[in-house]
Specification:
CATH topology: Spore Coat Polysaccharide Biosynthesis Protein SpsA, Chain A
Strand content: 15-25%
Largest sheet: 9 strands, mixed
Distance between the termini: 48 Å
CATH superfamily: Spore Coat Polysaccharide Biosynthesis Protein SpsA, Chain A
Number of domains: 1
Structural class: alpha/beta
CATH class: Alpha Beta
Shape: globular
Radius of gyration: 18 Å
Length: 263
């Protein structure tokens, strides 16, 4: 039997009406990945869906709460070489894991692998907007073969914002230094994680194809964070890891304009 290299760990929280659609997308893959559910909010709704699709559930039982803790737990329970933390509101295209596994086989120095993503707004798929265009521009240096292993290039793509969509990322588990997401942020925990990873040995492998959809909706955590102005403060704090404070403040103001897509 062929060894399975990749696992989708579906990170479930409370009762998302999009959870089942996400699970269907990760089950229906060209490359048959392993699929499990991770949650820190076990409930009957999650149990019913897991039972319906015969998926094992892992429960993080701890008094400590936080997005970063949930992400780290999800990566840790993945038993294969490659682990994708699938966000419950998002969907993964038919060839997602196939492309990820193929890219990994060609890049054995990979630390993380990720493709482009489109935005889901209701039933519509949006491939081009200001936010997505900026991210593609920031990722241009990674399109040059072999550049993804350069510390300078890995940090260059992160200096003006976070172009890496967290739900699109697959982690090479044996190279991940735990904890990965140990930051006191609600929004930029992933950007801070990439900044830390950019200092590590290993390549950021970018697949220039649209392979997953990130959902934008009124009840999303991202929308709530933007409305409460938390994101702008966190953007500034992460930018200070790359720039003097006065420059970080200017970039944070410009970056804030991209948030209008979530309104």
């Amino acid at each position: 039997m062929k060894e399975v290299l990749h696992t989708f760990v579906v990170l479930a929280y409370k009762e998302s009406s999009y959870l089942e659609e996400c699970i269907k997308s990760v089950i229906n893959q060209k490359y048959k990945s392993k699929v499990v559910i991770a949650t820190s909010t076990m409930n009957d709704y999650i149990k019913e869906i897991a039972s319906k699709y015969d998926i094992e559930i892992f429960v993080r039982e701890s008094d400590e709460k936080g997005i970063g803790l949930d992400f780290d737990y999800a990566i840790e329970i993945g038993e294969t070489e490659l682990v994708t933390v699938a966000h419950q509101d998002d969907i993964y295209d038919y060839e997602y894991s196939f492309e990820i596994v193929n890219a990994y086989k060609k890049n054995n120095d990979a630390l993380i692998l990720f493709p482009n993503y489109y935005e889901l707004k209701g039933v519509n798929r949006e491939y081009k907007n200001i936010n997505l265009k900026i991210k593609k521009i920031l990722l241009l240096p990674l399109r040059v073969k072999g550049r993804g292993k350069s510390r300078f290039v890995k940090r260059l793509i992160l200096r003006f914002g976070d172009p890496i969509g967290c739900p699109s990322v697959t982690f090479v588990r044996k190279k991940v230094a735990f904890p990965v997401f140990n930051f006191p942020y609600k929004c930029d925990v992933d950007w801070a994680a990439w900044e830390k990873m950019s200092r590590q040995k290993g390549a950021f492998v970018y697949i220039n194809k649209y392979l997953m959809g990130h959902r934008i909706h009124d009840d999303s955590t991202t929308t709530e964070i933007i409305n409460n102005n938390i994101r702008t403060k966190e953007d500034y704090q992460v930018l200070c890891k790359f720039w003097p404070k006065w420059i970080a403040k200017i970039i944070a103001r410009v970056y804030k304009k991209s948030e209008k897509n979530n309104s």
